[in-house]
Specification:
The complex is a heterodimer of chains A (676) and B (311). Helices cover 47% and strands 17% of the residues of chain A. Chain A is of the alpha/beta class. With 311 residues, chain B is an alpha/beta fold. Classes of the chains: A alpha/beta (676), B alpha/beta (311). At the A-B interface, α9, β13, β14, β15 and β17 of A face α1 and β9 of B.
Chain lengths: 676, 311
């Protein structure tokens, strides 16, 4: 930790220089970026100022009068010697502190107050903070506050293994009386009537707590360290490397103090949140899904219907459908609307809004049996917090219309197509689990920060399973608890996305899996041994065939690579030619504009000529003027410009009419070029 | 065929009797059934499709399913959308006789009876949807689709016309019920009584409609392998009813073959069904065969209608 370190510490001095990337620098940036109009005689009050090395740059950049306040005389003496106003004050009780601040400032205007790396040293910082909040409100001043970040990844990693290194100075200065995380600081500030306006934290990847450097969770090269860092990055990407949390606050009403026991009080949550995506295009199936949810033997659920890109009419229809439900279902159901994003966006929105202990995806054509929730509950009892996975049958369906009413018709026997139980190894090769058979623990999304990958247009469920299942484990049951509808003829995700797109998404997920370490469930080593032993036996039994296959694969790979290189080279050539054409085209357009201007001049001359004829009627003069005009037109026509278009551009423009439009010439260009 | 005997359908709405026969059900199931019915009645009433509604619950259990407290819960769940009558039979009447008993209490002005299983949950708009086809002449019954397992019997995907209906969830004009004479409780105890009932309606020239847009939830489950899971009672009574149906609807060759199969079977349910049938035949308790030319009843394979898929 580069700065601060406060009173009572016999092991360090606190004369920290000003650095642009230090707390001082960030404080100054926040004040400059959020500067409000203040009187030129306004002061900046620096509480717990230490040696106040920010005084000079602050005065220079903001023009305020700097006033330093601290209880340590050494720092105050330094400031005084540099010509700044100082006051000695022991921060503490609310009323006393407030009165002292009033006395120091008097009638003067206060533009800003800073309270840097001091709060964590005070025995009862909340009272001091309330005094600062009230003082800032009286003076309508902005307040900058900073504290060390206890949640820095270096501290967290070591603490996970039971190690907490208190040091002379730094993040874990032995004189600290209190620790803060970002969330904790913001809550504390709000209860003091200080509301965050902006933040600019100081960051460092390796903090003063990054020791010993060969600690397995700290060392950059370890798999487990990488895994933890990637987890942290997913959950809390903004604070893992934060040294000091630096906030700019505006004074306002104080929030009610949060009871300390709120963190562990039991939360009132439904057992299961059901996320149902709908585009409002198959209300007859959504009606079936909601009915089956009403039929659950375990009704401890909430239903979140995500209306994705609904038109107004579709929205009203979905609202009416929900309103039709019996009161007990209606009370458990809410509709959220999303107007952007792909098919994965509604899942992230729904999961974020879910309050249940578990979260399930039940699309608007899925059918749960009566014991769908009940089975999840049983699985939960056997393995709380794990991913829960039951079994399903698949059945083909199609739309029919009977007596003017649209309905769904089952077309074949419900079949158990997917494996009865979850097998992570099988899932590494492809999805074997329709999403409606799964309940994800809420912690996967809300604690581990594992969200759906919105770059995927298909297979987003498989991708999510592969990221959640290894970390939380899976409890599975062979019980058939749902019907997965299979659309043979009507619209579905299989018909909306072509095979190339499916393949692309599939490979994306495989690449992600290959790029990260993988936790395997118990008994996996035995499975791997068996697989490897089996492979060895197969190789031993068929060495020639396998060698041939390997050579064929290598040859195929070589061909593919060569083809890829050719394609890349061709692409580069095309790009270069395109750039040339675009440049040439730009020149032509400029010339065309000149010609058009010239043509307009001719038009003007023609009008003059007409007037002349009407006035004088001289035929020889008329012939001369007409010849001149024709020559001018010949020089100026668009046709002449078009003829000058170089051959590559002509080829490109002739290629497609769309291309012609894009380059700006319009259909006129096309017509002219055809005449060239 | 016109509905000369039916009251004009529409505003101010038809009079409806809903009936279900309980048998050792959990009162919670009954409450859930009523919650769903209440909402469906409320919506159909607000649409002007129905007027007054009575829910009649029969109970074939040995001990009443509903006590005062659970009946009060039902009344609360109904939210004054319908009158509820509870009839503890004090004997197991089966479904055929039970429904006949409940229908016998219907008010004279009743236009339709909705028959359902007590573990069926109707969808909110069900009543209006199943009533709609009756606006056309010649419709004798409209059956709703069951979920999560849809019945596989064939129906016309445009008209909805089908060979027979199931009383798990079906609407019948009360005059037609009376015209047919209700269920044949002498021949059938609790299976195929609905098939027989539906065929006799068709025998009178009415059409039966399966409406896939009208949906109700019927708690049926599959084995871990995805196969149908019939209960012991289902196996026995459906075997007994199958023999009776073949006899009554004039399929003597098929009856003889299946009867022989049953008698050679090691399945005690099938053996017992064959024994009971033969005893009734010996005592002259079988009904007279009908429809000898098979104009109405078509026995295909092992079913009374072509199925879209095996289940």
């Amino acid at each position: 930790m580069s700065t601060m370190i406060k009173r009572g510490n016999q092991h360090a001095t606190y004369d920290n220089p000003f650095q642009p990337d230090s707390v001082y620098g960030h404080m100054l940036d926040l004040l400059v970026e959020n500067r409000i109009q203040a009187a030129t005689d306004a002061i900046h009050l620096d509480l717990g100022c230490g040696y106040g090395r920010v005084a000079e740059p602050l005065t220079a950049r903001l023009g305020y009068r700097y006033v330093g306040v601290d209880k340590d005389q050494a720092g105050l003496d330094s400031l005084a010697a540099r010509g700044f106003e100082t006051h000695r004050l022991v921060l503490g009780e609310e009323e006393e502190t407030l009165e002292a601040l009033r006395r120091i400032v008097g009638d003067r205007r206060v533009a800003g107050v800073s309270f840097l790396d001091t709060l964590e040293h005070l025995a009862d910082g909340d009272r001091t903070l309330r005094a600062i909040g009230r003082f800032a409100a009286e003076k309508r001043a902005l307040v900058v506050i900073s504290v060390p970040n206890f949640a820095h990844a270096d501290i967290a990693a070591k603490l996970l293994l039971g190690r907490l290194d208190i040091t002379d100075v730094g993040l874990l200065d032995h004189t600290h009386t209190r620790t803060f995380t970002a969330r904790g600081l913001d809550t504390t500030l709000m209860t003091a009537g200080l509301h965050k306006v902006a933040e600019k934290n100081t960051r460092v990847r390796h903090s003063d707590q990054h020791f010993p450097t060969d600690h397995s969770l700290l060392a950059e090269g370890t798999e487990i360290g990488g895994l933890l860092r990637s987890l942290r990055a997913a959950v809390d990407p903004d604070h893992a490397d934060v040294m000091q949390l630096v906030r700019l606050c505006a004074p306002g009403p104080a929030a009610a103090a949060t009871p300390w026991n709120i963190a562990y009080l039991p939360e009132q949550r439904p057992f299961l949140s059901v996320i149902t995506r709908t585009q409002g295009r198959r209300l007859h199936t959504l009606r079936e899904t909601l009915l089956c949810l009403h039929g659950q033997t375990d009704g401890d659920i909430e239903v979140i219907v995500i209306g994705h890109k609904l038109t107004f009419a579709q929205l009203k229809a979905v609202e009416r459908l929900i309103d039709d439900q019996p009161e007990e279902m209606r009370a458990r159901t809410r509709l959220l609307r999303i107007n952007d994003g792909g098919r994965t966006r509604p899942l992230n929105t729904g999961f974020a809004a879910a309050t249940g202990h578990y979260i399930a995806i039940l699309d608007d054509d899925d059918i749960p049996f009566a014991h769908w929730v009940e089975t999840f509950r049983e699985l939960h009892k056997n393995g709380p917090g794990r991913m829960l996975r039951a079994s399903c049958v698949r059945q083909s369906v199609r739309n029919v219309t009977v007596s003017g009413q649209k309905g769904l018709r089952a077309e074949d026997t419900p079949k158990r197509v997917y494996p009865a139980r979850f097998d992570l190894f099988e899932h590494l090769r492809g999805n074997r689990t329709p999403p409606l058979t799964i309940a994800f623990p809420r912690g996967a999304f809300h604690d581990l920060g594992i969200h759906f990958d919105e770059t995927l247009t298909t297979t987003e469920d498989w991708d999510y399973i592969l990221r959640v299942a290894p970390l939380v484990g899976v409890s599975s049951s062979a019980a058939v608890t749902s019907v997965y509808r299979w659309w043979e003829t009507d619209e579905s995700s299989r018909t909306l996305h072509d095979q190339e797109e499916w393949d692309r998404n599939y490979l994306t997920t495989l690449r992600k899996m290959d790029a990260a370490p993988l936790l395997l469930p118990p008994a996996s080593t035995a499975r791997l041994r068996i697989l490897l032993d089996g492979w060895d036996k197969m190789v031993a039994a068929n060495p020639d065939r396998l060698r041939d296959e390997a050579e064929n694969l290598r040859a195929e790979l070589g061909r593919c690579q060569a083809e890829l290189e050719n394609c890349q080279a061709e692409l580069e050539n095309c790009q270069a030619e395109l750039e040339n054409c675009q440049a040439e085209l730009g020149n032509c357009q400029a010339e065309l504009e000149n010609c058009q201007a010239e043509l307009e001049g001719c038009g003007t001359r023609l009008n003059v000529l007409k007037t002349t004829i009407e006035m004088h009627g001289d035929p020889s003069q008329l012939r001369y003027e007409i010849d001149e005009l024709n020559r001018a037109i010949e020089r100026s026509t668009i046709l002449r410009v078009a003829r000058r278009v170089p051959p590559p551009v002509r080829r490109m423009l002739r290629g497609t009419a769309r291309g012609v439009w894009r380059v700006g010439g319009g259909r006129l260009w096309l017509r002219l070029l055809r005449r060239c | 065929m016109s509905y000369g005997t039916l009251p004009s359908f529409g505003h101010p709405g038809a009079s409806l009797q809903i009936q279900a026969v309980l048998y050792n059900n959990d009162p919670v199931d009954a409450t859930r059934m009523v919650v769903a019915l209440a909402r469906a009645v409320e919506l159909a009433h607000s649409d002007g499709d129905i007027s007054d509604v009575v829910l009649r619950l029969g109970d074939s259990s040995s001990i009443p399913v509903l006590d005062k407290s659970s009946f009060d819960q039902l009344t609360t769940a109904a939210r004054r959308t319908m009158e509820i009558e509870y009839d503890f039979f004090a004997e197991n009447l089966g479904s055929a006789k039970g429904h006949n008993r409940l229908a016998s209490h219907a008010k004279g002005e009743t236009d339709f009876i909705w028959i359902q299983n007590p573990d069926v949950i109707v969808s909110p708009r069900l009543i209006s949807i199943v009533l709609a086809p009756f606006r056309r002449a010649g419709v004798g019954q409209v059956e709703a689709k069951q979920l999560p397992i849809e019945h596989p019997k064939e129906y016309d995907p445009h008209t909805g016309e089908t060979e027979w209906t199931t009383t798990a969830c079906v609407m019948t004009p009360f005059p037609i019920y009376k015209e047919v004479g209700g269920f044949d409780a002498e021949s059938f105890f609790m299976y195929c009584d609905d098939v027989d009932f539906a065929l006799r309606i068709r025998e009178l020239g009415y059409r039966l409609i399966f409406q896939p847009a009208a949906i109700c939830f019927h708690d049926k489950r599959l084995s871990d392998e995805g196969a149908w899971l019939p209960t012991g009672a289902e196996r026995y009574y459906s075997a007994e009813a199958a023999l009776m149906m073949l006899h009554k609807w004039s399929y003597p060759e098929a009856l003889a073959k299946i009867l022989a199969d049953f008698r050679e079977s090691s399945d005690p349910d099938l053996l017992n069904a064959a024994r009971v049938f033969l005893e009734r035949r010996e005592h002259g308790e079988l009904p007279s065969p009908r429809d000898p030319e098979h104009r109405v009843a078509r026995f295909e394979g092992v079913q009374w209608a072509k199925h879209r898929f095996p289940l």
